[in-house]
Amino acid sequence: MNILEELNSVLGGLGLPLETGVFSGKAPDEYLVIVPISDGFGYHADNTPHEDVQEARVSVYSKGNYIAIKNKIVKALVGAEFTITDRRYIGYETETGYHHYVVDAQKNYELED
How far apart are CA 66 and CA 49, in angstroms? Predict the structure, then answer.
């Protein structure tokens, strides 16, 4: 499993349209976009990586109040044992009418053969 698969699985249950990278087609009033941020190796005393540390950004786009959506996302991610590394309001996009809020999540995975 990787972070994109797991985020799609966890957040797909929230009932909001969800895509990876960019939202294609006509955007609804509320939707989510997942974008990978980084992947790397954790530090180990023997300098041999044993896990893959992956991080992704969940962008919330809402034409209304985004706070309830943000709270559902955070609760779902914490419940699925993700580490929340950042949460922030990006701003109101006057061209589109969307509020943009992001939640950055990280998880460690065993290295695959």
Answer: 39
pTM of the full structure: 0.90
Please enumerate in sequence order all residues whose Cβ is within 8 A of that of 87, keeping only pairs 6 or more positions apart, or say none: 70, 74, 101, 102, 103, 104
The arrangement of strands across the sheet holding 51-62 comes to 18-20, 30-41, 51-62, 98-110, 83-93
CA distances from 74 to 24, 65, 68, 112 (A): 24, 16, 10, 27
pLDDT along the chain (113 residues), means of 10: 95 95 93 95 74 95 96 98 98 96 95 71
